[in-house]
C-alpha cells in the first residue's frame, strides 16, 4: 500500500472509532441528563453530540479531498479537508460552547438540585472510559506521524487537521468530564445546586478555547501554508546540486492538502544550456524532487537571474526597487 493511502486509511480508522465512541457516550449522557437533571451533564451530552458530528464532517472532508483534479480544480480537491476542519472549529464554538453557556447561565439563575447522584457518577465514569480509549487511539495515530517532538508543537506544525483535531477534542472532552464530576460532587456535598451551573459555564469556556485554537490552526492551512522548513531546504538543496544549475535563487511552496505540496523554483541555469537541454534538466529535476518527496504533486520552474528574482520578490512584497546603471563619464577635453 502506498504511504499516502496508508496514512489516509489510518486517519479514517481513527475517525470511525471516534464517531462510534462519541455516539455511545452521547447516548449515555443524554439519558443520564434527562434522568438526573444535571446541568453539567446536559453540557457534556451536547459536547459529545457535537464531537460525533465533527468527526462525521471530518470524514466527509477526507472523502471529498480524494476526488481527482478536473478542469475547474486543476490541483484537485485536497483543501476540502481544510474547509471542513474550519467548519468543525466554528461548530465547536457555536454549538458546543454556546449551548453549554446557555445551559450553565440558566442553571445559575434557576438552580435545581441533582437527583440520583449515583447515576451521575456512574455515567461520568463510563464516559471517561470511552473518551479515554478514543483519545489514546487518536494520540497513538498522531504520534506515529509526529515522532518524538513536543505534542503541542507537533499539532501547531501539522498540516493534517483530522489527525490532531480528534486528539484535541478528546482532550477537551476529558477535561470537561473532570469539571462535570467536580461540579456535580460539590453541588451535592455543599448543597449548592448553583455550582452545577458554574461547572457547565466552565465547560463552555474549555470548548470555546478549543474552538479558537482549532480555528486558528485550520485558518492558516485554508489560506495556504508553506511546507515544513526541512522539506523546503531539502527541495532547494536538490535543485542546487543539479548539474547545469548555476544558482538556485529561491523557492515557494504551498500545501494543497496534508500530503500534497506545490513547488515553484527560481533557477539560474548555465549559459551553455539550449532550450532542448533545458527542458531535459527541468524534467530530471522534477523526477528527483518527487522521488525524494512523493508529496510534491506539482513543480514549476522559472529560469531567472538572481537580480531578476530579487526584483520579483520585492514587487511581491509591495516594494519597488530603483536600479541605477552607472556609465563611465565622458573624457574631459584634452
UniProtKB/TrEMBL annotation:
A GO BP entry: zinc ion transport
Lipid bilayer topology: Multi-pass membrane protein
Primary location group: membrane
Localization terms from the record: Membrane
Keywords: Membrane, Transmembrane, Transmembrane helix, Transport
Cellular component terms per the entry's GO annotation: membrane
Entry-linked NCBIfam families: CDF
Gene Ontology MF annotations: monoatomic cation transmembrane transporter activity
Lineage start: Bacteria, Pseudomonadati, Pseudomonadota, Alphaproteobacteria, Hyphomicrobiales
Native source organism of the sequence: Rhodoblastus sphagnicola
Protein name: Cation transporter
UniProt domain Cation efflux protein transmembrane: residue ranges: 15-222
InterPro entries assigned: Cation_efflux, Cation_efflux_TM, Cation_efflux_TMD_sf, SLC30A9
